[in-house]
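Troubleshooting log. The previous structure file for this entry was overwritten by mistake, so regenerating from the original sequence record. Sequence copied from the archived sheet and checked twice against the printout by T.R.
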Amino acid sequence: MPLASTNDCVSAAETGVPTDLELVHRAQAGDMEAFGTLVDRNRRAVFRAALAAVRSAEEADEVAQDTFVTAFQKLDQFRGEAAFRTWLLAIAWRKAIDRRKGITRWLQRLVPSPHTDEGQEPDMTERLPAGDRSQEDALITADLQRRIRTLVATLPPKLRDALLLAGSGEYSYEQIAAMLKVPVGTLKWRVSEARRVLKQKLAAAGYEIG
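Regenerated output below.
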């Protein structure tokens, strides 16, 4: 006799997989294993956020470690008003910015070479707005890639940070806004403005941008 099909979704509770909030409550009660699970779940997101700021895998790893230490120390302050990951990323971004301020040559490392290894950010040509993909396919050359990396490095920090974080595809606008401590509307404007400025600069350099 055939089984009836179902479209019911299986919840986290039904699979026995605890949510981040449940793990936080356990960790607040002294469950170190629960906090370790939170670290494992969020390690990559924290590392990528730090990397967007400091542009060094080694330094980003140190920022990530500092972030989790601080998060554990301040865990009793987490009230669940935002998602745990959003709260954690805000801590990571503050620590990354503090570290970046002490790096005298961080601008030279802001955008890596076209070759991408594990722990490195992809080339900035991968981050142009999706609507520009058809033009991008025709324009991508080694010279254009170098030009884009140079121009991104010259953007004002507020625009550059917003563009790099949004372009990574790792975070929601809400998470990025929490990291940068700005309203979501302001963040969206910064991303849009960064893209507009890049297009303008590319056009001024002789590239045909629609």
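The CA atoms of residues 82 and 178 lie 9 Å apart. Archived copy saved in two places this time.
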